[in-house]
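FAQ: What does the model actually see?

It sees only this:
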Amino acid sequence: MADNSFEIPQALRDVSEQNLKQVRAAYEQLVNFMIKAMGPWMAAMPSNPIADSFKDVQGGAMDIAMEISESAFTFAGKISNAQTVQEVVTLQTQFAQERMQAFVTQTQQLYSAIAEAFQKSERGTMGVSMGAMPSNLIPSNLMTGFKDVRDRAVAMAKTNAESA
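And it is asked to produce this:
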């Protein structure tokens, strides 16, 4: 079989690498801005089991988002240094496989954090504050809906943990 590999010109790879550096710098500025903007809002949240659970879930989601973006930048860096189209295809296949594996793990982590947050809120201030309110002010469908969401999140977390 003839070698049909096409070599990507060095000039194109250099431009690609330079563009990637600029995009990464802009992304890091955006992330830093968002972290600074969210800081005061998160600090202003009261400290109670519900808010703390929310912060835990939000922190986990942020960690996952940062991991995803880091892997995307790493992948883009590898692509920009690839010398042949075949190498690009190989890198893309590897990246897709790695991201699917990471997706499963990250989904399990996030569902576990959500399930834990629901459990904490059930044991914590949610029960106290709701219990302190007159029952005619708490719509029954709100409490039923909350329990349904909680039960589904716990079931999904258990299913995902068992399939790992």
